[in-house]
């Protein structure tokens, strides 16, 4: 990767603009030949538009959607190292309980929050990774998930933040390996305070919400 002397994330935008300029260069040259003298537009007597205006407008629009905002800032309480106690229900009744850790940190200039999970699942070592962010273009929280219990990549279907409840809800789905059918669920993260948050994975069973997993995270000093 070539490192440019630009702030994080700006290099990609600059590359996009350079590509745009390269593609439009032949058309710009042709337009220059047809431009009336003294900077006047054809038959109007008005000044011709500035040559860089379209590129400037595109850069401004791209930067607007590429700059982290307050929607990203609400995720700050999730940053850090945490101990998690997980309860899992495969069916109604007493849950199985396990422990693990998660380490979350911002990457790419505060655009994405990366979480690295470790623990156990079914008596086997477990590791997973989530990338969480806010898509300003589409106005929703987005995330991806991978772990060592499969070979696919879980993709979110949109998420919202409830400021009054301090709750982030992200909709997702996965392909059930037993039935082969797509199963929908939602991930709900409740920020209790700066040192505690609770994650719940909620599906639907017999037409009713069914909490499949609940993890209480406590900050590691």
**Quick one: how many beta strands?**
11
* Series of secondary-structure elements, N-terminal to C-terminal: HHHEEEEEEEEEEE
Distance between the termini: 36 Å
Number of helices: 3
Q: Tell me roughly what share of residues is in helical segments.
A: 10-25%
The largest β sheet comes out as: 11 strands, antiparallel
Q: In angstroms, what is the radius of gyration?
A: 24 Å
Question: Your description of this structure?
Answer:
It is a single chain. With 221 residues, this protein is an alpha+beta fold. The protein has 3 helices and 11 strands. It has helices at residues 10-34, 53-66, 70-73, and strands spanning 80-88, 96-107, 112-121, 124-135, 140-147, 154-155, 159-162, 167-175, 182-193, 196-205, 208-219. An 11-stranded antiparallel beta sheet has the order 6-5-4-3-2-1-11-10-9-8-7, with no helix packed on it. A hairpin with a 2-residue loop joins strand 9 (182-193) and strand 10. The radius of gyration is 24 Å and the shape is globular. The relative contact order is 0.12.
